[in-house]
Amino acid sequence: MSKRNVWIKRHSRETLRQQFIEIIDLLNGKDIPYHLEGGVLLGIVRDGDLLPWDNDTDLSINFEDYELLEIAAKEIKRLGWRCKFKKFDTSSSFATADDIRVFKISDYWLGCLKGGNRMDIFLKYQVDGYRCWSAAGAFMRVDNKYYDGYELIEWNNRKLRVPKHYREYLTEKYGDWSVPQKVWSAKSEGTVFGG
After folding, report:
1. Domains of the chain as residue ranges with CATH
2. 3-state DSSP assignment of residue 54
């Protein structure tokens, strides 16, 4: 079944899963050093799967690996996904307005419009011992130790890359992440800082 021009798939959980698997397989196959991020990391670690109420998946890539992401972007487009690099709205202590903030991947609807299934790949910038990024209109940072390499976890007969000390990372980000919370705001994360 095509990713394009299918109305019923516009907000499909199956298309979101298909997109996640295709892109993870591509990144793993090209040995691109991504990390699972946000709700996808939380869901797979805690529940063993994507969160059923999450409408996107998130990854991150260290800024130093940006050129590898550009190469992967061409392959992702060839898989049939809509791709767009987005810049920061304003300059911050770790990036300028000309720097890339996120790589957005979505499906197509009616052949040309952005569909409802989406993956965001955030660029993480290193400054003063931290990795910094922007999501949902907030600046975030964590100790660089989480992104100085990666760990592997098993999911769906695949090995997925996650931040080092990923359980500690989830605690820093979400607090008590063992309890599911369907209502959540990125601006309430423990990683938010002034920018």
Report:
1. 7-193 (3.30.460.40)
2. coil
